[in-house]
Amino acid sequence: MRDWLRHHPDVKTIRVAAADLNGQARGKRVPVRFADKIVKEGTRFPYSALNLDIWGEDIENSPLVFETGDADGVLKPTERGFLPMPWLDAPTALLPIWMFHEDGTPFEGDPRQALARVVKKFHDRGLRPVCATELEFYLIDDSGRELRVPPSPRSGKRRPGADTLALRALDAFDQFFTDLYEACEAMDIDADTAISEAGIGQFEINLLHSDDVLKVADDTWLFKLLVKGLARRHGFAASFMAKPYDNWPGNGMHMHFSITDNEGRNLFDDGGPRGTDLLRHAVAGCLKAMPGSMLLLAPHANSYARMVPGAHAPTGIAWAYENRTAALRIPSGSHRARRIEHRVAGGDINPYLMMAGVLGSALIGIEDALEPPAPVTGNAYDLDLPQLPVTWQDAIDTFEQSPEMARIFAPELIDNLVRTKRQEIHYMAELSEEEVLDLYLDTV
Predict the structure, then answer these.
(1) Do 385 and 316 form a contact (C-beta atoms < 8 A)?
(2) What is the pLDDT of residue 100?
(3) pLDDT at residue number 371
(4) Last residue of a domain, one of 58, 79, 107
């Protein structure tokens, strides 16, 4: 880690940051001369700092605050090491960190620790998840009272409507995307294909698959920070908010995953299009746990504006082969790449919690040898299917009571997240629609 700083002598300050339960970066600014001390000893801040509400306020009556004296945890660097922060004017390094107790055991209220816990369960069984994420976001001019697509830096014109898979839409913001890919390269974020999407000023970028699940989650979290920061440097906003516009599609975050053995063989591949029994067990686990995991897939008040039938966001609990109306899709293509695409989550998720929930659900299906219902065909929105929770309150209650979530997450994390969301839902009732939009546009 220290070698990185020696090769970047222009860096004078560093940021140390961890993801809280909402995926917000919580941390400190530190002069670079103290970097060796942080690498060796870590840093400290209160356990409660990873359990703040979306406004950054303490959770009322949280056991992490006054009941325990608002005690400190120890935060140590992750495997990622130092990274540049290309969206800032001054050369700056970011050091991702995660939280431990004084005795070195993981703090189970840390979302990255929650994902590591799930990954370890796979590895203990000789299984290796392989994951990738696809992130949708809007580029937005939020300088006026109403949100609009930014004018193209090339032409000065605003796109009047959506332009799915249009090169001209990408070319209109060519310098932004050029800078974004260069920044991803510098930050070791494995960004792949970019496309224009179905919303006005909406784009999607895929991150490459890897069996290093924590790196995929890190890439996803860091990518969101990067896109939002870099867009501001270009004079507009970027938002992963689930539904910034009433009349345009929401932002999704699709996760693809397969499972290999320790030799790298895809255990979903049966040599044909159907897939193995292990694939169907994983599908069944994801379907069974989907209502309980809804709070991880749609964590905010605005998330549920996206979850309406026929709006490119699955609302029924079903799976299918090569069918984007289903919650779980088995993509076509080479049998060697047989995988599951989980299509429910919005772009506003915390990737650590969302990926822990999805992979943990799949593992339950594998451990219990669950069998899914028959795959659906046709338009899943027209079918009489079991439905996902349709309100934020229902999702909170279902998550708290879910036996599947209790198998995946530590009781401490479940309690902390439920307290957080109940506090948010209480105060959200006092906000106008404009205030809600302003809150979520930059934060999630």
Answers:
(1) yes
(2) 98
(3) 98
(4) 107
What's the number of domains the chain is made of? 2
Q: What is the pTM of this model?
A: 0.97
Please report, for the domain that includes residue 390, its CATH number: 3.30.590.10
User: For each successive 10 residues of the chain (444 residues), what is the average pLDDT?
Assistant: 88 97 98 94 96 97 90 97 97 98 97 98 98 98 93 88 87 96 98 95 97 98 98 97 95 98 97 97 98 98 90 91 97 96 98 98 98 97 95 98 98 98 96 93 96
Containing structural domain, residue 160:
118-443
Domain boundary among 85, 107, 129: 107
Would you state the pLDDT for residue 154?
A: 87
Let me know whether 187 and 66 are in one domain.
Answer: no
Residue 206 has a pLDDT of 98
Asked if the structure places residue 113 within a domain, the reply is no
The reply to whether 85 and 175 lie within a common domain is: no
187 shares its domain with 310: yes
Q: Are residues 255 and 388 in the same domain?
A: yes
Return the C-alpha torsion angle 342, 347, 349, 351, nearest 10.
70
Predicted pLDDT at 310: 74
* 73 plus 143 within the same structural domain: no
User: Within a domain: residue 206?
Assistant: yes
Q: Do 153 and 299 have their domain in common?
A: yes
